[in-house]
Protein backbone atom coordinates (compact mmCIF):
# COMPACT_ATOMS: atom_id res chain seq x y z
CA UNK A 1 0.00 0.00 0.00
CA UNK A 2 2.82 2.42 0.85
CA UNK A 3 4.10 2.31 -2.74
CA UNK A 4 0.69 2.85 -4.34
CA UNK A 5 -1.29 6.06 -4.56
CA UNK A 6 -4.65 6.08 -2.83
CA UNK A 7 -7.58 7.16 -4.94
CA UNK A 8 -9.64 9.86 -3.23
CA UNK A 9 -13.20 10.91 -3.99
CA UNK A 10 -14.38 14.28 -2.67
CA UNK A 11 -18.16 14.19 -2.23
CA UNK A 12 -19.69 17.61 -1.62
CA UNK A 13 -18.20 20.54 -3.52
CA UNK A 14 -18.79 23.28 -0.99
CA UNK A 15 -16.73 25.70 1.08
CA UNK A 16 -14.87 23.31 3.37
CA UNK A 17 -14.20 20.93 0.47
CA UNK A 18 -11.89 23.56 -1.01
CA UNK A 19 -9.62 23.38 2.04
CA UNK A 20 -9.73 19.58 1.90
CA UNK A 21 -8.81 19.59 -1.79
CA UNK A 22 -5.73 21.74 -1.20
CA UNK A 23 -4.59 19.33 1.51
CA UNK A 24 -5.18 16.23 -0.61
CA UNK A 25 -3.34 17.72 -3.59
CA UNK A 26 -0.24 18.39 -1.47
CA UNK A 27 -0.01 14.80 -0.27
CA UNK A 28 2.24 12.80 -2.63
CA UNK A 29 0.61 9.48 -1.77
CA UNK A 30 -2.88 10.19 -3.09
CA UNK A 31 -4.66 11.10 -6.30
CA UNK A 32 -8.06 12.78 -6.41
CA UNK A 33 -9.95 10.57 -8.86
CA UNK A 34 -13.49 11.87 -8.37
CA UNK A 35 -15.40 15.02 -7.41
CA UNK A 36 -19.14 14.76 -6.88
CA UNK A 37 -22.02 16.89 -5.72
CA UNK A 38 -25.78 16.86 -5.99
CA UNK A 39 -25.26 19.87 -8.29
CA UNK A 40 -23.20 18.62 -11.25
CA UNK A 41 -22.31 22.13 -12.41
CA UNK A 42 -20.98 22.98 -8.96
CA UNK A 43 -18.83 19.83 -9.02
CA UNK A 44 -17.46 20.86 -12.43
CA UNK A 45 -16.65 24.38 -11.22
CA UNK A 46 -14.99 22.97 -8.10
CA UNK A 47 -12.76 20.60 -10.06
CA UNK A 48 -11.76 23.35 -12.47
CA UNK A 49 -11.02 25.84 -9.68
CA UNK A 50 -8.76 23.32 -7.94
CA UNK A 51 -7.04 22.08 -11.11
CA UNK A 52 -8.43 18.56 -10.73
CA UNK A 53 -8.59 16.31 -13.79
CA UNK A 54 -10.87 13.58 -12.57
CA UNK A 55 -14.33 12.08 -12.89
CA UNK A 56 -17.16 14.53 -12.22
CA UNK A 57 -20.41 13.10 -10.91
CA UNK A 58 -23.76 13.94 -9.35
CA UNK A 59 -24.59 10.38 -8.25
CA UNK A 60 -23.09 9.05 -5.04
CA UNK A 61 -23.71 5.43 -5.97
CA UNK A 62 -21.38 5.86 -8.93
CA UNK A 63 -18.66 7.14 -6.59
CA UNK A 64 -18.97 4.09 -4.35
CA UNK A 65 -18.95 1.73 -7.36
CA UNK A 66 -15.68 3.17 -8.70
CA UNK A 67 -12.87 0.67 -8.02
CA UNK A 68 -10.30 3.46 -8.23
CA UNK A 69 -11.75 5.07 -5.09
CA UNK A 70 -10.02 3.97 -1.90
CA UNK A 71 -11.05 6.94 0.27
CA UNK A 72 -14.28 8.93 0.32
CA UNK A 73 -14.10 12.47 1.73
CA UNK A 74 -17.60 13.47 2.87
CA UNK A 75 -17.96 17.25 2.98
CA UNK A 76 -21.65 17.87 2.27
CA UNK A 77 -24.31 19.24 4.64
CA UNK A 78 -24.37 17.96 8.22
CA UNK A 79 -27.64 16.06 7.95
CA UNK A 80 -26.28 13.66 5.29
CA UNK A 81 -22.92 12.89 6.89
CA UNK A 82 -23.94 9.73 8.76
CA UNK A 83 -25.91 8.17 5.90
CA UNK A 84 -23.16 8.82 3.36
CA UNK A 85 -20.34 7.71 5.65
CA UNK A 86 -22.15 4.47 6.47
CA UNK A 87 -22.61 3.79 2.75
CA UNK A 88 -18.92 4.46 2.10
CA UNK A 89 -17.82 2.09 4.86
CA UNK A 90 -20.20 -0.62 3.67
CA UNK A 91 -18.70 -0.23 0.18
CA UNK A 92 -15.27 -0.95 1.66
CA UNK A 93 -13.97 2.61 1.37
CA UNK A 94 -11.88 4.40 3.97
CA UNK A 95 -13.81 7.47 5.03
CA UNK A 96 -13.06 11.03 6.07
CA UNK A 97 -16.23 12.60 7.41
CA UNK A 98 -16.69 16.23 8.34
CA UNK A 99 -18.16 17.11 11.70
CA UNK A 100 -20.76 16.58 12.92
CA UNK A 101 -20.71 12.91 11.99
CA UNK A 102 -24.31 12.48 13.16
CA UNK A 103 -27.34 14.52 14.22
CA UNK A 104 -28.93 11.81 16.38
CA UNK A 105 -27.54 9.31 18.85
CA UNK A 106 -28.93 6.48 16.73
CA UNK A 107 -26.95 7.76 13.73
CA UNK A 108 -23.89 8.09 15.94
CA UNK A 109 -24.10 4.44 16.98
CA UNK A 110 -24.93 3.24 13.47
CA UNK A 111 -21.90 4.95 11.93
CA UNK A 112 -19.54 3.73 14.64
CA UNK A 113 -20.77 0.18 14.18
CA UNK A 114 -20.69 0.32 10.36
CA UNK A 115 -17.05 1.43 10.30
CA UNK A 116 -16.10 -1.26 12.83
CA UNK A 117 -17.87 -4.00 10.84
CA UNK A 118 -16.28 -2.92 7.58
CA UNK A 119 -12.78 -2.77 9.04
CA UNK A 120 -11.97 0.42 7.13
CA UNK A 121 -9.97 3.36 8.41
CA UNK A 122 -11.78 6.57 9.30
CA UNK A 123 -11.06 10.08 10.41
CA UNK A 124 -13.35 12.83 11.65
CA UNK A 125 -12.45 16.44 10.88
CA UNK A 126 -11.86 17.56 14.44
CA UNK A 127 -9.13 19.68 12.99
CA UNK A 128 -8.38 21.59 16.20
CA UNK A 129 -6.32 18.61 17.33
CA UNK A 130 -3.86 19.45 14.55
CA UNK A 131 -3.66 23.17 15.29
CA UNK A 132 -0.19 24.18 16.47
CA UNK A 133 -1.49 25.84 19.63
CA UNK A 134 -3.30 22.68 20.66
CA UNK A 135 -0.35 20.46 19.74
CA UNK A 136 1.87 22.58 22.01
CA UNK A 137 -0.64 22.53 24.87
CA UNK A 138 -0.99 18.75 24.57
CA UNK A 139 2.80 18.38 24.66
CA UNK A 140 3.09 20.57 27.76
CA UNK A 141 0.40 18.54 29.52
CA UNK A 142 2.07 15.26 28.62
CA UNK A 143 5.42 16.55 29.87
CA UNK A 144 3.93 17.14 33.32
CA UNK A 145 4.56 20.89 33.14
CA UNK A 146 1.31 21.75 34.96
CA UNK A 147 1.45 18.82 37.36
CA UNK A 148 -1.87 17.10 38.09
CA UNK A 149 -4.57 18.64 35.87
CA UNK A 150 -7.71 19.40 37.87
CA UNK A 151 -9.61 21.96 35.75
CA UNK A 152 -10.07 22.51 32.01
CA UNK A 153 -12.09 24.88 29.88
CA UNK A 154 -12.56 25.14 26.11
CA UNK A 155 -15.05 27.51 24.45
CA UNK A 156 -16.20 28.10 20.87
CA UNK A 157 -17.40 31.70 20.42
CA UNK A 158 -18.34 32.54 16.85
CA UNK A 159 -21.04 35.04 15.98
CA UNK A 160 -23.03 33.46 13.14
CA UNK A 161 -25.51 35.69 11.34
CA UNK A 162 -28.10 35.23 8.56
CA UNK A 163 -25.49 36.51 6.09
CA UNK A 164 -23.52 33.26 6.54
CA UNK A 165 -23.29 31.34 3.26
CA UNK A 166 -24.86 28.21 4.81
CA UNK A 167 -27.41 30.00 6.99
CA UNK A 168 -30.42 28.09 5.62
CA UNK A 169 -28.81 24.81 6.68
CA UNK A 170 -27.06 25.90 9.85
CA UNK A 171 -29.97 27.72 11.46
CA UNK A 172 -32.48 24.85 11.23
CA UNK A 173 -32.66 22.03 13.75
CA UNK A 174 -33.31 19.42 11.05
CA UNK A 175 -30.11 20.23 9.15
CA UNK A 176 -27.93 21.93 11.77
CA UNK A 177 -28.84 19.83 14.81
CA UNK A 178 -27.84 22.10 17.67
CA UNK A 179 -25.21 24.68 18.52
CA UNK A 180 -23.08 21.99 20.13
CA UNK A 181 -23.37 19.60 17.19
CA UNK A 182 -22.88 22.24 14.50
CA UNK A 183 -19.76 23.91 15.90
CA UNK A 184 -19.48 23.57 19.67
CA UNK A 185 -18.33 20.01 19.02
CA UNK A 186 -14.92 21.50 18.17
CA UNK A 187 -14.63 22.78 21.74
CA UNK A 188 -15.99 19.54 23.18
CA UNK A 189 -13.54 17.43 21.20
CA UNK A 190 -10.59 19.67 22.04
CA UNK A 191 -11.57 19.42 25.71
CA UNK A 192 -11.64 15.60 25.55
CA UNK A 193 -8.35 15.51 23.64
CA UNK A 194 -6.49 17.73 26.08
CA UNK A 195 -7.86 16.12 29.24
CA UNK A 196 -7.34 12.63 27.84
CA UNK A 197 -10.32 11.13 29.63
CA UNK A 198 -14.05 10.52 29.20
CA UNK A 199 -16.89 12.43 30.87
CA UNK A 200 -19.18 10.75 33.38
CA UNK A 201 -21.69 13.57 34.03
CA UNK A 202 -22.74 16.88 32.50
CA UNK A 203 -25.12 19.70 33.46
CA UNK A 204 -25.95 22.30 30.81
CA UNK A 205 -27.95 25.46 30.18
CA UNK A 206 -28.83 27.35 27.04
CA UNK A 207 -30.67 30.33 25.61
CA UNK A 208 -31.57 31.78 22.22
CA UNK A 209 -31.35 35.48 23.01
CA UNK A 210 -31.56 36.81 19.45
CA UNK A 211 -34.08 34.19 18.33
CA UNK A 212 -32.30 33.60 15.02
CA UNK A 213 -31.86 29.84 15.32
CA UNK A 214 -34.40 27.03 15.70
CA UNK A 215 -32.40 25.84 18.71
CA UNK A 216 -30.50 27.41 21.62
CA UNK A 217 -27.73 29.48 20.05
CA UNK A 218 -25.77 29.83 23.28
CA UNK A 219 -24.92 26.85 25.49
CA UNK A 220 -22.72 26.32 28.53
CA UNK A 221 -21.97 22.97 30.15
CA UNK A 222 -20.16 21.90 33.31
CA UNK A 223 -18.72 18.42 33.07
CA UNK A 224 -17.02 15.92 35.35
CA UNK A 225 -14.47 13.52 33.94
CA UNK A 226 -14.10 9.97 35.23
CA UNK A 227 -10.65 10.74 36.62
CA UNK A 228 -11.93 13.70 38.66
CA UNK A 229 -11.08 16.64 36.39
CA UNK A 230 -13.88 19.22 36.37
CA UNK A 231 -14.41 21.31 33.26
CA UNK A 232 -16.54 23.80 31.40
CA UNK A 233 -17.30 24.14 27.71
CA UNK A 234 -19.50 26.58 25.83
CA UNK A 235 -20.63 27.66 22.39
CA UNK A 236 -21.93 31.15 21.58
CA UNK A 237 -23.50 32.01 18.22
CA UNK A 238 -25.13 35.27 19.38
CA UNK A 239 -21.87 36.92 20.45
CA UNK A 240 -20.68 40.20 18.93
CA UNK A 241 -16.92 39.79 18.83
CA UNK A 242 -14.11 38.34 16.74
CA UNK A 243 -13.95 34.54 16.52
CA UNK A 244 -12.38 32.96 19.59
CA UNK A 245 -11.67 29.56 21.07
CA UNK A 246 -10.64 29.98 24.69
CA UNK A 247 -8.50 27.28 26.31
CA UNK A 248 -7.69 27.18 30.05
CA UNK A 249 -5.90 24.30 31.76
CA UNK A 250 -5.12 24.44 35.49
CA UNK A 251 -2.91 21.95 37.27
CA UNK A 252 -1.23 21.59 40.63
CA UNK A 253 2.10 22.87 39.29
CA UNK A 254 1.09 25.40 36.65
CA UNK A 255 -1.53 26.85 34.34
CA UNK A 256 -1.95 27.21 30.58
CA UNK A 257 -4.21 29.89 29.07
CA UNK A 258 -4.40 29.88 25.26
CA UNK A 259 -0.71 30.44 24.38
CA UNK A 260 0.26 31.70 27.84
CA UNK A 261 2.27 29.57 30.26
CA UNK A 262 2.77 29.88 34.00
CA UNK A 263 4.80 26.88 35.11
CA UNK A 264 7.62 27.81 37.55
CA UNK A 265 8.89 24.24 37.52
CA UNK A 266 9.38 24.47 33.76
CA UNK A 267 10.58 28.09 33.80
CA UNK A 268 12.49 28.65 37.08
CA UNK A 269 12.21 32.14 38.47
CA UNK A 270 9.10 32.92 36.43
CA UNK A 271 7.38 36.07 37.68
CA UNK A 272 4.59 36.43 35.11
CA UNK A 273 2.98 34.82 32.11
CA UNK A 274 5.25 33.59 29.33
CA UNK A 275 3.85 33.22 25.82
CA UNK A 276 4.72 30.89 22.97
CA UNK A 277 4.30 32.28 19.44
CA UNK A 278 2.23 29.89 17.36
CA UNK A 279 -0.76 29.50 15.03
CA UNK A 280 -3.72 30.18 17.29
CA UNK A 281 -7.30 28.93 17.38
CA UNK A 282 -8.47 32.37 16.32
CA UNK A 283 -10.13 32.05 12.92
CA UNK A 284 -13.26 30.46 11.52
CA UNK A 285 -11.79 30.50 8.02
CA UNK A 286 -11.37 26.90 6.88
CA UNK A 287 -8.20 27.86 5.02
CA UNK A 288 -6.68 28.63 8.42
CA UNK A 289 -7.39 25.14 9.74
CA UNK A 290 -4.90 22.28 9.85
CA UNK A 291 -6.46 20.02 7.25
CA UNK A 292 -3.07 19.27 5.75
CA UNK A 293 -1.77 17.73 8.98
CA UNK A 294 -5.07 15.90 9.52
CA UNK A 295 -5.06 14.38 6.03
CA UNK A 296 -1.36 13.51 6.18
CA UNK A 297 -2.04 11.69 9.47
CA UNK A 298 -4.96 9.82 7.89
CA UNK A 299 -2.97 8.74 4.85
CA UNK A 300 -0.08 7.60 7.02
CA UNK A 301 -2.45 5.55 9.19
CA UNK A 302 -3.95 3.84 6.12
CA UNK A 303 -0.48 3.03 4.82
CA UNK A 304 0.71 1.69 8.17
CA UNK A 305 -2.57 -0.06 9.03
CA UNK A 306 -3.17 1.79 12.29
CA UNK A 307 -6.07 3.81 13.63
CA UNK A 308 -6.08 7.63 13.50
CA UNK A 309 -6.47 9.18 16.94
CA UNK A 310 -9.59 11.03 15.75
CA UNK A 311 -11.32 8.13 14.02
CA UNK A 312 -15.08 7.62 14.03
CA UNK A 313 -14.86 5.39 17.12
CA UNK A 314 -13.28 8.25 19.07
CA UNK A 315 -15.54 10.91 17.54
CA UNK A 316 -18.48 8.82 18.78
CA UNK A 317 -17.62 9.91 22.33
CA UNK A 318 -17.35 13.60 21.43
CA UNK A 319 -20.77 13.45 19.78
CA UNK A 320 -22.23 11.44 22.66
CA UNK A 321 -21.17 14.27 25.00
CA UNK A 322 -22.79 16.83 22.69
CA UNK A 323 -26.03 14.84 22.77
CA UNK A 324 -25.78 14.58 26.57
CA UNK A 325 -25.37 18.37 26.80
CA UNK A 326 -28.46 18.91 24.64
CA UNK A 327 -30.38 16.34 26.67
CA UNK A 328 -29.43 18.08 29.93
CA UNK A 329 -30.88 21.34 28.62
CA UNK A 330 -34.06 19.63 27.42
CA UNK A 331 -34.60 17.72 30.67
CA UNK A 332 -33.40 20.42 33.05
CA UNK A 333 -31.13 18.10 35.00
CA UNK A 334 -27.63 16.61 34.97
CA UNK A 335 -27.12 13.68 32.59
CA UNK A 336 -24.79 10.75 33.16
CA UNK A 337 -22.73 9.07 30.47
CA UNK A 338 -22.62 6.74 28.65
CA UNK A 339 -26.06 7.51 27.27
CA UNK A 340 -28.65 4.76 27.25
Give an account of the 3D structure.
- Helices cover 36% and strands 22% of the residues.
- The strands form two sheets. A nine-stranded mixed sheet has the order 14-13-12-11-7-10-9-8-15, covered by helices on one side. A six-stranded parallel sheet has the order 3-2-1-4-5-6, with helices on both faces.
- Strand 12 (255-257) and strand 13 form a beta hairpin.
- The protein has eleven helices and 15 strands.
- It has 340 residues and is of the alpha/beta class.
- The protein folds into two domains: 6-127 and 291-310, NAD(P)-binding Rossmann-like Domain (Rossmann fold), CATH 3.40.50; 128-285 and 319-336, Dihydrodipicolinate Reductase, domain 2.
- The protein starts with 5 loop residues before the first strand and ends with a strand.
- The radius of gyration is 20 Å and the shape is globular.
- The CATH topology name of the largest domain reads Dihydrodipicolinate Reductase, domain 2
Task: Give the helices and strands as they follow along the chain.
Answer: EHEHEHEHEHEHEHHHEEEEEEEHHE
Gyration radius from CA atoms, angstroms: 20 Å
Strand order of the largest sheet: 14-13-12-11-7-10-9-8-15
The name of the CATH architecture of the largest domain is 2-Layer Sandwich
The 3D shape can be described as: globular
CATH class group of the largest domain: Alpha Beta
The domain count comes to 2
Spell out the CATH superfamily of the largest domain.
Dihydrodipicolinate Reductase, domain 2
Tell me the distance between the termini.
40 Å
Describe the largest sheet.
9 strands, mixed
What integer is the average pLDDT? Answer: 97
Count the E strands: 15
SS strand fraction: 15-25%
* Percent of residues in helices: 25-40%
Amino acid sequence: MASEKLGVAIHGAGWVAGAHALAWIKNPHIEVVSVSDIDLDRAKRFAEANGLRCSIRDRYDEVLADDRVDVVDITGPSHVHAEQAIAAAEAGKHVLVEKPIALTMDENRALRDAVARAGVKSVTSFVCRFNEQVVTLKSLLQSGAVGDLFYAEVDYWHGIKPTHHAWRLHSRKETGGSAMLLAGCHAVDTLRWLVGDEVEEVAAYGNNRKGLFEYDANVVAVVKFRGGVIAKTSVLFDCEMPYAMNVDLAGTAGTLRDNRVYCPGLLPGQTGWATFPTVMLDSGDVMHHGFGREIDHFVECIQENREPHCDVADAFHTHELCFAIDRSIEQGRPVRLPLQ
